[in-house]
TrEMBL record:
Name the record gives this protein: Uncharacterized protein
Annotated source species: Nymphaea colorata
Alphabetized Gene3D superfamilies for the sequence: PPM-type phosphatase domain
GO molecular function list: cation binding
Superkingdom of origin organism: Eukaryota
Length: 111
């Protein structure tokens, strides 16, 4: 059973081709690009090894206290190290400062 589950989820740890290309070209900003429509933020479909991937955030008020991130690529400071996808969702609990700090620092300190 574990082997069957691993066959399904292991490809999800690899970066999608568009992200791999952006990382190769040194354009990590493309991972942060998205579109804003009122209280909706979204990133259109990108190719993943097993299909398409996208992301959206809908906020309840004008001040977005929560933060989220997806980091795809090397999961260590060594380029030849393991590759995968890191997903973080951080709840602001009354203010955006802490969730923004965690978003900007957690992954890079774990890496």
């Amino acid at each position: 059973m574990v082997t069957a589950v691993m066959k399904i989820v292991t490809p999800c740890w690899r970066p999608c081709p568009a992200e791999r290309e952006a990382l190769r070209n040194g354009n990590s900003a493309s991972a942060n690009s998205g579109k804003v429509d009122g209280l909706l933020w979204y990133k259109d479909f990108a190719q993943h090894i097993n299909g398409d991937c996208s992301m959206a955030v809908v906020q309840a008020n004008n001040l977005l206290e929560d933060q989220s991130q997806i980091e795809s690529g090397p999961l260590s400071s060594v380029e030849s190290g393991p590759h995968g996808t890191f997903v973080g969702v951080y709840d602001g609990h009354g203010g955006p400062e802490t969730s923004r700090f965690v978003k900007n620092n957690l992954f890079h300190n774990l890496k």
